[in-house]
Amino acid sequence: MSRARRGLLVVGLASGLVGVLLVASPGVARGVSLTGAARTVPVAVVGVAAAALAARSLLDARRGNAAGDGERKATTSGAFPSPERRPRYDPPGTEFARRVDAIGWTDRRDAEPANRRELRDDLRNAATSALSRGSGPSPREVERRLRDGSWTDDPLASAFFAGDLVPSLSLSGYVRALVRGEPPFARRAGRAAAALSKRAGAGDMTPAPSADVRVAFGDEPAVRTSRYLPDGEESRERESATDRVRGVTAAALAVGGLGIVTLRPGLLLLALFGITVSGYARAVPAPSRAVAVERAVSDAEPAVGDEVEVTLSVRNVGDATLADLRLVDGVPPGLAVVDGSPKFATALRPGKRASVTYTVEAARGDHAFDPALVVTRDALGVRKRETLVDTETTVSCRPPAQSLPGGAPARTTTRAGRSRSDAPGPGVEFHSVREYRPGDPPSRIDWRRKAKTGEFSTVAFHEHRRQRVLVVVDARAEAYVAWDGGGDGDGNSNGEPVVQRGVAAAAALVSRFRSAGVPVGLAALSPRSCRFPPGRGGDHHRRLQEALVASPALGWVPPDGEVDASAAVREIHRRVRADTRVVFVSPLSDDASVTAARRFDAHGHPVSVLSPDPAARTRARGYESGYASLARERRLRRLRAAGIPASDWDPTEPLREVTRSGQSRATTSR
Amino acid sequence: MGALGVLSLAGALTFGVESAYAPGIALLAGSVVLAGVLGLTPPFLLAAAFLVLLAWDVGKHGFGIAREVGREPSTFRIEAVHGLSSALVYAAGATLGYGIYAGVTGGRSVVALLALLVGSVALLFALRT
């Protein structure tokens, strides 16, 4: 206790004692009568002091909240859990829309507005690539058209490439932009992206971001119950006072102060409520936590798309009535609540039970429930206790083993050299004839042709190599793009990340390769580890299928960390043989995915890319989705230009198509 | 002012509009304070403040539930428990305080009142945590 505080304490005690003494024996102070300033000044000072106390109390509360928020932000979002929603997956192009949105009014004062320049460069690259593809004009010609604006009818869109980074506007134009609330450069960027999509044949796009993206901007992320309380040893439980006490006390002090200053006993009496609440908050015991929570699911191993009923029941096992009990079930991120609500509130007498039933829709994967969050409060709601109650439940939803077209899987072992490779070389099956080069073995010289024409030529056969395949799934946070456009457009439905389609395709590929007798492995390009070098046999295959369903690296929650694509590829490369073929399953949602594929190529692996299209089912018509598909097409073209077969897969098509092409050769390029 | 507050609050609580609730409460609280300054007698003032406080409390509680649990589940039970117990506690506190006030007023010295006020405010400052 500081010296000043101790002094105050002494003054307070002494003054209080004097007061009590004077009340008890009024005769003592009969001689003293206060007049004038001596009478009014202390009253005013006390009143003002009370008001100051109220203000400080409010300030403290605000600061406490702010500090608490900052502290919590590191581990949790601080918002109350909302497990009935899936984590929000950004629709394709959200990143672009965010960058356009970040164009502010103030960065125009920078000498070199870097973000504007980068935005324009990216859009120009996409434009050059999109407009010059096929039999279009040369890139140089496209550059020229972009510069002089003859590529589009939209004056604003052409001004994006032709005009300045910081457009100079007339006064009226500036006022209009201010009224519209959108910086002119951002407006032009949107128009340019929309015009570009139209030119590139992607259909009409509005020059505004679509509703899904706007929702993704402002939306709070869904919070899991397990992430709600701050991390740490004692984080299973938290007890706190609600801000109710502070609010009432501060108001009572303020009104009491006013009453003292204005000499109104009625107002001073209102401070009674503050005293009541403060006293109650001190006297009341912490709310009980004696609850037992049970969870039952109607089907622990449903098929994909089945509806599973979850019943959560809570029983008061203590001997005090729970006046205010709120319960939030820890629905796993992959399961979407389709009916009912996983939250409820009730009051429970000792020994009573309450329950809630809701329905979730099963999706592929192992889904372990998070602990249920129990919040108990006392009757007045001045103190609350939050407890995480573990009840282990897992819903395991595995798609049935893929029925393979073409009869039973091959039973023969395929040690060295069953699979025919496309490389010409020694072997038994004819591949081609080419001219003789010194050093070719005499046995492969076509002697008949020599006799007929007098020229040496060499016969090449299909070289038989043993093939090994590694299926690599792109599961970086960037690849967690919503593939159904975020749902019905109002942002309320539960999206599915395109990664899940990639995982399903990977499962089909693994089965296919296995039935063809090819050793196959699995890896995830993710900060979370998931690596299985190519192998064969039932056990290995089961492990792979298990990982595809249950590995956290391939789950429903985007990973937290960043991953350096090149380093991750090097890690994978070091664990497999150099001649292993890589099938890279990636939505190609950013440039790093192209880098990853090319790194595999550079390490000497034959690479093919299978890219599920996140925009296949989207109905979004905002400029950002147009930009996203343009950028993705550009990435596919870059891959193909680098000699990497890349196939664009519409995930609404059956997987069989994919696996067929996956089996025959490298996935074909369209 | 009070009528306006009542109107706003009634709308807020009936239709569950949180943005109308805070101004309503503020208007009501303002009118209570104004009445106090203008010299309404203590019992009426206490009763008015009690009702406003109760309205604030129940509203806050209700909107808190809606935010945390959602609007679908039935919340009548805990709202009733909460409302009743709040009313009870506040009423008891106010009655007790008013009883003491009514019992000891009159004929005391101003110096005693001042000493008590100074003492309590100083103690509040000193013991604030």
From TrEMBL, chain A:
<dbReference type="Pfam" id="PF23933">
    <property type="entry name" value="DUF7269"/>
</dbReference>
<feature type="region of interest" description="Disordered">
    <location>
        <begin position="125"/>
        <end position="147"/>
    </location>
</feature>
<feature type="region of interest" description="Disordered">
    <location>
        <begin position="642"/>
        <end position="670"/>
    </location>
</feature>
<dbReference type="InterPro" id="IPR001434">
    <property type="entry name" value="OmcB-like_DUF11"/>
</dbReference>
<dbReference type="Pfam" id="PF01882">
    <property type="entry name" value="DUF58"/>
</dbReference>
<dbReference type="Pfam" id="PF01345">
    <property type="entry name" value="DUF11"/>
</dbReference>
<feature type="compositionally biased region" description="Basic and acidic residues">
    <location>
        <begin position="63"/>
        <end position="74"/>
    </location>
</feature>
<protein>
    <recommendedName>
        <fullName>DUF58 domain-containing protein</fullName>
    </recommendedName>
</protein>
<dbReference type="InterPro" id="IPR002881">
    <property type="entry name" value="DUF58"/>
</dbReference>
<dbReference type="InterPro" id="IPR047589">
    <property type="entry name" value="DUF11_rpt"/>
</dbReference>
<feature type="compositionally biased region" description="Basic and acidic residues">
    <location>
        <begin position="431"/>
        <end position="446"/>
    </location>
</feature>
<feature type="domain" description="DUF11">
    <location>
        <begin position="291"/>
        <end position="343"/>
    </location>
</feature>
<feature type="compositionally biased region" description="Polar residues">
    <location>
        <begin position="660"/>
        <end position="670"/>
    </location>
</feature>
<feature type="compositionally biased region" description="Low complexity">
    <location>
        <begin position="405"/>
        <end position="416"/>
    </location>
</feature>
<feature type="domain" description="DUF58">
    <location>
        <begin position="432"/>
        <end position="599"/>
    </location>
</feature>
<dbReference type="InterPro" id="IPR055693">
    <property type="entry name" value="DUF7269"/>
</dbReference>
<feature type="region of interest" description="Disordered">
    <location>
        <begin position="63"/>
        <end position="94"/>
    </location>
</feature>
<feature type="region of interest" description="Disordered">
    <location>
        <begin position="394"/>
        <end position="446"/>
    </location>
</feature>
TrEMBL record, chain B:
<keyword id="KW-0472">Membrane</keyword>
<protein>
    <submittedName>
        <fullName>Uncharacterized protein</fullName>
    </submittedName>
</protein>
<dbReference type="InterPro" id="IPR055941">
    <property type="entry name" value="DUF7519"/>
</dbReference>
<feature type="transmembrane region" description="Helical">
    <location>
        <begin position="107"/>
        <end position="127"/>
    </location>
</feature>
<keyword id="KW-1133">Transmembrane helix</keyword>
<dbReference type="Pfam" id="PF24363">
    <property type="entry name" value="DUF7519"/>
</dbReference>
<feature type="transmembrane region" description="Helical">
    <location>
        <begin position="29"/>
        <end position="59"/>
    </location>
</feature>
<keyword id="KW-0812">Transmembrane</keyword>
<feature type="transmembrane region" description="Helical">
    <location>
        <begin position="80"/>
        <end position="101"/>
    </location>
</feature>
